Amino acid sequence: MDSGEEKATTFLSRAASSLPPPHAIRDLLSHGVCVRCIFRLFGVSEYDDSCPLLKASTLLSLLEEQRNIPNAISENGSIANDLTQCPYDPHASGNEQPYCSVCLGILQFTNGHDQDLRTCESNSVSVLTSAITEILKKEAHQIDGFSIEISLPPVVSANDRAIWLYMKGRYASEEWFIGKLLSQQISVKDALRSLVTTSLESCLGVKSSSSSFRIRLTYIHEEASSKLQCSMQKFHGFKRRKTETNCKERMVDDLCGKNETISGEFHRCDSDAVVHCTLNAMQDDAFSELFMLPPEKTNNGCKLTISCYRLPVYIGGRYLKFSRRVSQSRWMIEDERMGEASVEVRMLGSGRPFLVEVSNARVMPSMVNIQEIADKINNSNDKYVTVRNLKLVGSEAWNLLREGEAEKQMYLIFICIFMEKTFT
Fold this sequence. Notes:
Number of strands: 10
Shape: elongated
Number of helices: 14
Strand content: 15-25%
Mean pLDDT: 75
Strand order of the largest sheet: 2-1-5-4-3
Helix content: 25-40%
Radius of gyration: 31 Å
Low-confidence stretches: 71-84, 113-121, 240-264, 325-333, 338-344, 406-418
Largest sheet: 5 strands, mixed
């Protein structure tokens, strides 16, 4: 046994007490549920990238060995929950599903990235980490921290609930299931965030924090989302909710017949929020009537789009406006203006506050950078404006800009030229 397998076995030994018995795991595997989803469905946290080494066959054999299957005899003398009820064979061809029926491949990291399908035989988070690293390098981002944003289609939450209600209906009377609650699950989003954060911290050498730099992972599954919409059209409260949230024009009422999708990131997010709200308000009996329990297997995984950006950076200070009064002779000799221009330059007041927003800066400005900007502005040949007290400020500084908003617009444009060349 190599170090990776040993690590995976050690992890499983710790997690075994939280997992269901082998016959229930066989049942879940037979319905296309991936190993990572089995762990999170039963609240197993702190699992790392050793999970890919826990193939279905390894998981079952270790659990059966630990629980002494098939020698485990129930009180009435029969084998506990006869394994013939769940005849799943992980070694049989065709039993290994390419995409999990619950997470739709998200936790298997077999997602199509920007319409270019990337698959990793080991289902390792490193394939996603590498994709993110390449984007950071390509876009020349310099970061000292990051924050992960994740957007998942509502169908993933529906799948979580569907598989749980299936287990509840089948195993509610068994001792190992008594006391289990849906709220004890680890969501796909939280599980994904934990895996990606740990991997990125190791790869990039920086920590995850409330940084202004964001890495956004957006997953979509058009086919599954369309089926979800079709199912929810039958729910009596769905159209009412759309009207209440002013989303009626953004939803596709005849989605089943036309198989249309909602275009645009904003519309999709807005629509997803309505679906989530409706699902949360739906009682279990209504949910069970509308959705398949357990969720059906899928031959397609989610498509993933990765975007990296920094929240706006604000640089503020005070600008001092110059006024030029030019006096020249009106005498013209042979179409040539004669006489010297007399120029009077004066500074108006002690300066008014201004704020510049730098969008998606590739480099976080330092005080040295800001001083260089001030020097360039103040030493410019065209003395339209000078600046003082230039510094990084928080977004709350917008209240400094209430006065004289209209007349300072041209000066902000002038200053922004230097900002753009420096930070983007």
